[in-house]
Amino acid sequence: MTGEDALERMPHKGAMRLIDRIISVEKDQIRCEGVAHGDADYPLRLNGILYAANLVELGAQAAAAHASIGDLKGNHTGLLIGLQNICLAISVITECSGRLQVSARQLHFDGNGALYDFSIGAEKMTYVEGRATLKMQGEAE
Questions:
Q1: Could you give the strand order of the β-sheet that contains 19-26, starting from the edge strand earlier in sequence?
Q2: Are 138 and 111 in contact (CB under 8 A)?
Q3: Integer Cα distance of 47 and 43 in angstroms
Q4: N or C: which end of the chain has fewer CB within 10 A?
């Protein structure tokens, strides 16, 4: 399965699919690039402001894409059920003109769920990092 296949299967469509492309995939890690976030209508902006805390959604989407590439037979639904250890380097993203770089590292995976550490940043600065717990469920065959 390709990275593009994994992105296409994600439930996030249109503007809410915040991962533009998958840069690399390894057994326990994925690196992605986010869609352009400079426009005022970027879906994570609130009244035009991009809060770093909102970027956890990119970490969750990267983790879901990696889990999708895993052993779920190409079909799944997923749900973010928990966030832990969220660390924000800054509160508001103001000086970032480049695309956001997202990485997620798998700590646990089975047919029911996955646990990932993630980080989101740009231009050699990490804005937010933390841990996401996903509930994964393959579709019945």
A1: 19-26, 29-34, 101-109, 113-122, 125-138, 76-88
A2: yes
A3: 10
A4: C
Q: Which tokens in the block code for residue 83? A: 């966030």
Predicted TM-score of the model (pTM): 0.87
Please check whether residue 40 is in contact with residue 48, taking contact to mean a CB–CB distance below 8 angstroms: yes
For residues 134 and 113, is the Cβ–Cβ distance under 8 A? yes
**CA–CA dist 141, 138 (Å, integer):** 9
**Cα angle 105-110-111, degrees, rounded to a multiple of 5:** 130
Give the pLDDT band of residue 138 (cuts 50, 70, 90).
low
Residues 6+ apart with CB under 8 A from 111: 71, 72, 136, 138
Yes or no: say if 102 and 19 are a contact pair by the CB < 8 Å rule: yes
CA neighbor of 88 nearest in space, from 42, 55, 115, 134:
55
User: Both tokens of residue 40?
Assistant: 């005022």
Provide the CB-side half-sphere exposure for 130 (13 A, CA).
21
Residue tagged 């997923």 (tokens): 78
